[in-house]
Amino acid sequence: MALLVNEALGEGAILLQQRATSWRECFQLAGKALVTSNRVRDSYIQEMIDAFEELGPYMVIAPGIALAHARPSKSVLQTGLSLVTLSEPVVFGSVSNDPVRLVIGLAAVDHDSHIDLMAALSELLMDETKVNILLQADKEPEVRQTLS
Amino acid sequence: MGIGTSVLLKMNAEKVLEALGVTAEVQAADISKAKREGHEADIILTTPELVYQLENMPGKIVPIDHVFDLIEIREKLSAALS
Q1: How far apart are the CA of A59 and the nearest CA of chain B, in angstroms?
Q2: Cross-chain Cβ contact B48/A96 below 8 Å
Q3: Helices (H), chain A
Q4: Do A88 and A126 contact (CB within 8 A), yes or no?
Q5: Burial B26-56 (b: 16+ CB within 10 A, else e)
Q6: Is residue A70 a contact partner of residue A44, using CB atoms and an 8 Å limit?
Q7: Which terminus of chain A, N or C, has less C-beta within 10 A?
Q8: What torsion, rounded to 10 degrees, do the Cα atoms A123, A129, A135, A141 define?
Q9: Cβ <8 Å between A114 and B49
Q10: Tens of pLDDT along B12-64?
């Protein structure tokens, strides 16, 4: 299952031990990684930021984990993920899940074709051992190995 | 509808409902769909930050802090179902 996550992370989609001081910078990192890996156009970054500004930190879905995303739109070229880990945790304003150390960027072309990927992502993020390896990793092969 | 949080919550709610032996239809919805069609739901699972958006719904609103915590979802869903 984790293999699906690995495949959804294109070249350039993984950024490790990044420095950021705000949720906005985190979204920009996760968004740029989606752009670099050819999953979205630049405009998707602003769409994710707008969604967070409109609805607040509900995207912080578990302790330390944020799922940065916007709706499917013309900005999405291909369904995919990005993965950003932070060297210092960042406060997003979440009631129960701050501070954030792992940001997963998500882009989907429609509402249902990525369901298997979400199941795989869910399985991965429920595995504390694997999440800890991801958080500690400073080289991409460690991450790829954990996901394979 | 809904591609991120609601999809994860739906998948985990379905796991819990199956374990509880409860037959239910679970739909993932983003906030605009939830506002539009949420009055048809008996129970609405959401994240704490979105509760205020759903205040006028007739069904029970159940805020879930941690969408991967099946124990939390099980406890809160069981309470809402009883």
Answers
A1: 7
A2: yes
A3: 2-8, 23-36, 43-55, 115-125, 128-136, 140-147
A4: no
A5: bebbbbeebeeebeebebbbbbbbbeebbee
A6: yes
A7: C
A8: -80
A9: no
A10: 999 999 999 999 999 999 999 999 999 999 999 999 999 999 988 999 999 99
DSSP state for residue B55 in the 8-state scheme: T
Q: What is the pLDDT of residues A39-70, one digit of tens each?
A: 999 999 999 999 999 988 999 999 999 999 99
Structure tokens at A116: 């298997």
ipTM value: 0.87
What is the token pair recorded at B39?
Answer: 């009055």
DSSP letter string over B7-48? Answer: HHHHHHHHHHHHHHT---------HHHHHHHGGG-SEEEE-G
Q: How many other CB atoms sit within 10 Å of the CB of residue A133?
A: 15
Catalytic status, residue A111: no
Spatial contact of B77 and B20, defined as CB atoms under 8 Å apart? yes
